[in-house]
Amino acid sequence: MHENTKNTEPEPALTKELCYITFGLDSVGEIYCDCSFDGSGCSLEAFGDMFYQIFSGDLYAPTIMFLNKYFSNTNKEELAKKLSLIIKEKFEKAALDATGDEVVIKPSDLGNRLNPTKQ
To answer: What is the pLDDT of residues 59-78, one digit of tens each?
Structure first.
């Protein structure tokens, strides 16, 4: 991920935000991040809370609902369906990859290997 180096001021319609984090995707597929936080209107604790909610997954369902509403209001329901499928597949793949890295050994098997009994 790359930091947005544009340093552009928010558009007038976005000035209600006291602090924000945005992500974008450029033409070569690089993700960049931009944020605004000056500490006067948004406390460090509030910024940290926003950051936590974004990355803990707390905002996953509300964001999906927002996107579905956005696509519905712009008559792009088919795009919403495709996006939902892509996101679902990404999460399923990540879950499979995570479980594939785990080695599972029964405690009794480990005990038998460490302390073999004579027969």
So the answer is: 888 988 888 889 888 889 88
